[in-house]
């Protein structure tokens, strides 16, 4: 019997642009198919030297010449200095406009190298190979690239990857708590879509790092995000529903000076914003509890560490989503039924203090 094959899904963004997503054990072997021209450049996590060598061998044997590679990873790469060094390395390696840049990494490396590729020679095609759960469930698609400048993600572009290749063995190798933290974005997609069966049935196995369930969840999660992105590629409106959990999440992340991980911040943010949805839009308690139950199963927090909420309450909406005294944020009437709403900043901050600010 043949092994479960790698599954491909294609998402059209415009008449000329699409992102294809391949997921499953052995997906890396599909890499040459995603090349636009005859040459490639690889950007990879420091920790993934062996996997990147395998990628290079696969590309070469598929007729794609690998011109060079650069290693890096984590938040420090999201700087203009790092991007400039990458540009120079690509120049030196002889990268041309038709060279495809393969980026094997977590969300930070995908953001930074994606930005570098999107601006080098006015834009090179990219292929994302996520190496963290956050990237495999969320950041690998959607086309947002960028680096930090004073604030997080202040400089960036929209540049959709030609393809995303989810090789579950690579994601499963992510060490530490970050592996579980990335599941917060999957739960966000469950709440927004209302589709809880697949995630509920595969969650425990994926948490155990089993490749098949992990690949299926990634394909579903990236697919959900792409359906939203395809309807609003530049975040003019609808796409903002993907910010569920992030208004409160970003405030907590910033108040902790980024010591609270993005995933944990989003998990607590989801808990707070589901309560807001109950109050403002009548989200049934049972449905909110289903989502909270999923976060608890994963081992994600539903409350911030003591003392953080009061400080975070003062930072609500200080990011890009604040408009005219209110924050535009998604509110759920039911699971699977989000709508964008302008919520006064005070409503969100008061809720945070009420829920978590005692003592
Ligand atoms: N563009 C988007 O749509 C989007 C969406 C959400 C988040 N983000 C960005 O993603 C970033 C966070 O991404 P993240 O949570 O993936 O963390 P990360 O990319 O910072 O990776 C976490 C750490 O793990 C290392 N690492 C990554 N994969 C590994 C592996 N397989 N084995 C060993 N080590 C590995 C990294 O070098 C880093 O030190 C933030 O900068 C955030 O702004 C972007």
Automatic annotation (TrEMBL):
Keyword NAD, does the record have it?
yes
List its EC numbers: 4.2.3.4
Record-annotated 3-dehydroquinate synthase N-terminal domain positions: 73-176
One GO BP annotation here? aromatic amino acid family biosynthetic process
Q: What cofactors does the UniProt entry give for this protein?
A: NAD(+); Co(2+)
Q: Which PANTHER family match?
A: 3-DEHYDROQUINATE SYNTHASE
Kindly indicate whether the keyword Lyase belongs to this entry: yes
Gene3D superfamilies membership: 3.40.50.1970, Dehydroquinate synthase-like - alpha domain (1.20.1090.10)
In terms of InterPro entries, this protein maps to: Dehydroquinate_synthase, DHQ_synth_fam, DHQS/DOIS_N, DHQS_C
Q: What is the lineage of its organism?
A: Archaea, Thermoproteota, Thermoprotei, Desulfurococcales, Desulfurococcaceae
**Domain 3-dehydroquinate synthase C-terminal spans what residues?**
182-321
Q: Can you name this protein? A: 3-dehydroquinate synthase
Q: Which Pfam families match?
A: DHQ_synthase, DHQS_C
